[in-house]
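Recap quiz, item 2
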Amino acid sequence: MTTFSVPGFSSDYRFRLATYILVSLLVAGSGFSLISGPMNLPSTEGMLAVVDGLFGTQFSHLEHFQQIVVMELRLPRLLLAMMVGAILAQCGAVMQGLFRNPLADPGIVGVSSGAAVGAVIAIGLLPVSFADWAIPSFAFLGGLLTTLLVYSLARSPNGTSVLMLLLAGVAISAFSGALIGFISYFADDQKLRALSLWQMGSLSGASSANLWLCFITLICLSLAFQRRANSLNALVLGEAEARHLGIQVESLKIQLIVLTAIGVGIAVASSGIIGFVGLVVPHLIRLSLGPNHITLLPLSGLCGALLLLLSDFVARTIVQPAELPVGLITALLGAPFFLAILIQQRSRALPE
Amino acid sequence: MLSIPNLRCKAGKKTILSINNFQLDAGQFNAIIGPNGAGKSTLLKAISGDIPSSGRINLHGLNLSKWTALERARHVGVLPQSSQLSFPFTAAEVVALGLTPLSLSQREAALGIQQEMKRTDCSHLADKPYPLLSGGEKQRVQLARVLLQLSQAMKPPLLLLDEPTSAQDLGQQHSLLTLTKELCQENSYGVLAIFHDLNQVLHYCDHCYVLSDGELQQQGKPSECLTPLQIETYWGYRPELAHLPISGRIAFI
């Protein structure tokens, strides 16, 4: 693997600085998030409760129920938010590189909707007792099937056409919406409520199986994406140019599509459709540190974790003791952002 | 170094390119010329593997399809006619992508990038965002990337250029063509370039291939291939031949 060290390319110093900043913000944000909520806890005690929970010590002087709030409600939710955020942001960055379009997003290509159909089938049609394993596997299958369908539709002898890919994504999203509508229409009241809450995105359903699944997915995806960062850089030049540089473009594209389907499927299964994280985060990182995927991917992961952590914190404290679906918060932040990028692109395109 | 015993390309059912006995020697600056729709770009794309073709293309005696992707990338470079980038990579970062098929140490890599950018006269652009460069600047940056990609070739590399001077001003055209000629003479590159300007072919190229209707009609030294009569046959226009008083060279008007 070649390493780059031209002035301005590896930007080692800025990369390290950004990593330190993001990691410290994540740590501070996690601590703050653990102790605040409808029940505010003294800060040191909250931290000590986590230490106690992990190592079986007895440092904190919290009541038993307070420890349960920290260890079994807030901590799993916090971890899930960070992992889902990191997965979504990296998948977004990879999709944008793959489609050579800063506006591409798992939602836009139809992967999220496909995964949602899978999850909705599992929630709406299967008995509740199957939910634990059925939702993630159905979501992954839904995401993968959609992606493969979109990809085979968009495939031509000269490679995949981005335009076709995006249009097919639009069609698939519409079709998925209809399917979800059908299933919701025939669902009973209780399932309907579960369905609509899940569709808006919530991080409250963090079971330990869920957490492990996300953890393993996050680690494997990050490693797999990082190995392909250099090829993604070359792909930005164009598919033909990347091929001339010795990259097996067709197989690279399929690998990236399957990997993002896995990431998005797992993320959708564990927390519903949380939009715009994959769009906003990579864009912010590109603005501040440049588009090189070698630095873009890990920083997007960190920044995505931070964004979803903060969004979830807002979602569960702004109307406490009730809470908002976190998907609402990210959409509120992300949709205007999406428009801003659009306007910026349009004004940049005008002079030519 | 490059030999194509036979090669066919089809668009639908129609054969758009049919080449027999094409030979290209290392150390020579070769031009492909011909009227629009003659199959010039198709030939270039078939050699670079961008479009499917039937037949054989041998580079250094070995069928190109048998080369490993990395070896092939180190020996065949393609300069695109124009290229857009949707992300703001700097010019130096674009050049650095030429390292992809190579395995160099960081020091060698940095040195290589500097060298090639200097050679194509774009060192001053290193930190500028590529999307903001002019067409000519982009092309020189891309050329630096391709030269870096070919810099570790074990055998004479093949450089394919698609209208290399289209976006350059007069002075830049001259320096780019002179540089290409140097690459042929000093580093024994084999260069195959599409040209529209026949005078450039006359002045810079060692050999030219005249394509028309998807077939190789003629080849040889530019001064022998390019006569007013031949030009009229293929382009449907008969230019006037002028003998330049100072250099003694010929030019078409």
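Chain B touches chain A through 43 residues (CB under 8 Å).
The two ends of chain B are 35 Å apart (CA to CA).
End of item.
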